[in-house]
Amino acid sequence: MAPVVAVVGCGPGMGGSAALKFARSGYAVAAMCRSAESFAPVREKLQALGASFGFYEVDATSAESVAAGFAKAKAELGVVEVLVYNCGGGGFGISVLDIDPQTFRSSFDASCTGALLCAQAVLPSMLASEGSGQFAVKKKGTLTIFSSATSAFRGGNGTAQFACGKHALRALSQSIAKESTGSKASTPCMSGWIAC
Q: Which InterPro entries match (predicted)?
């Protein structure tokens, strides 16, 4: 059975690129995003590769949706060895004075709370399993990757709504790495758009 990577936020940008990279490395891909429409371009490329994958419609900000999606992926593909979390809330170009608190919460939930929910869904099984894929940590343990941006390190003019969630995501990633023996957690910071 192929090792499994879960890519949350598996649309046509960074998430899709990550899914394709792992598929080319022999991983089965548990592709998760809010809509089949967002996943469609990635689906075509995974099919062209002959990759093993499943699509799971998941709202990363909903504990119930995350739990159901990961349970279904585990039943169909196996234990997730690598988690790639690629969700984030927007909000560029909005002054701190103009940010709507509900929109701020939604953005924060997409950037950070969803990452927490996904990590909680997979870490127990990941830590208990023997890793087999090339990205498994010492062939035992886990790898969690939370995509971020330079906003995780500094705020900017009109970036408060986005940057707050990414700051928190970086702290979450560091905490996971410290708490989970045998686990590697990283928060690569990439600014700009990447298309698969």
A: NAD(P)-bd_dom_sf, SDR_fam
Residue 110 contacts residue 68 (beta carbons within 8 Å): no
Residue 116 three-state SS: helix
User: Is residue 196 in some structural domain?
Assistant: no
| Radius of gyration from C-alpha coordinates of the chain | 16
Is-contact 144 81, C-beta < 8 A? no
- 190 touches 14 (CB < 8 A): yes
| Amino acid symbol at 101 | P
Q: How far is CA 8 from the centre of its chain?
A: 4
Between the CA atoms of 39, 42, 44 and 45, what dihedral angle is there, to the nearest 10 degrees? -170
Structural domain contains residue 192: no
pLDDT, tens digit (0-9, with 9 covering 90-100), for 159-184: 777 777 888 888 888 888 777 655 55
Burial class of residue 135 in the structure, from the number of CB atoms within 10 Å of its CB (0-12 exposed, 13-18 middle, 19+ buried): middle
Confirm whether 158 is domain-assigned: yes
User: DSSP character for 148?
Assistant: B
* Geometric angle at alpha carbon 94, from 105 and 89, rounded to 5°: 40
Residue 42 contacts residue 10 (beta carbons within 8 Å): yes
